[in-house]
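Protein 1 of 2
SEQ + STRUCT:
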Amino acid sequence: MATLTARELQVLSLMAQGRTNGGMSRHLHLSESAIEKHINAIFTKLGLTEETTIHRRVAAVVTFLEQMGRM
């Protein structure tokens, strides 16, 4: 989590709120393509590879919530 940028943390926080890429895009006034790039950077920095046995978005949110003391 320490390697995430401020924007990546914003995106992850919005992901934890259940927002879609489109919802995050509108909230942050960014393109959906930019949101996707931030999400992919988050997955990479959290070590969430192209795993087929887990849902990377859920795993990223769980990591975020654990680090924030909400789980």
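Protein 2 of 2
SEQ + STRUCT:
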Amino acid sequence: MKVEIWSDVMCPFCYIGKRKFEKALKDFEHKDLVEIEWKSFQLNPAMKTEPGRSINDYLAEVKGWSPEYAAEVSDHVTGIAAEVGLEYHMDKAVVASSFDAHRFVQYAKTMGKGDEAEEQLFKAYFTDGKNTGDLETLVSLGANVGLESEAVRAVLESDDFAEAVRMDAYEAHQVGARGVPFFVLDRKFAVSGAQQPETFVGALHQAFGQWAENNRVKITSLADGPGCSPDGVCD
């Protein structure tokens, strides 16, 4: 059963949601039959790479916040991240376009490294303060997951996978995603946001039950848990 996750590297709740979903999947008895696919979603397609600019200054400008309030929001998100074992250093985050980072993930997916690439990007952005819009940074992250450096460089120096990024954005609107993270299970059930693991477990059970029935997959048990509403949205 496929689970598609629309995400953007600059979205702090996408990394948090990744951890919460991973915890749910770890406890899901049929996890070996679940396939994860990361999908591209740019929160701000017009965003330009501006190394040296404070992310709080950027947020203050685009959100209409004061710099002080932007810093408070960053501190709050950092605390939420810590609850799931993530170490955020928002003061080091580099304001950067995510388009090439998405192309990098799209290429990594073709090499069976999509999840690993996504993890590397999140860590680079939120923990290590690296410029995820920089070619050399992305080449280095690719090497970290076993991708050939020259192959990554060739992709990013071309227009390869640009259309795949745009297609994911189009699909996001088709499935009802207006923000990220957005999880779609078997194209029938959706979970919006970084929900608690229990919510993801319930969605996995319900979606998998229908998937198994439709594909005539024999399963030994299907545990009860929080479910999804008929319109496909899980709370």
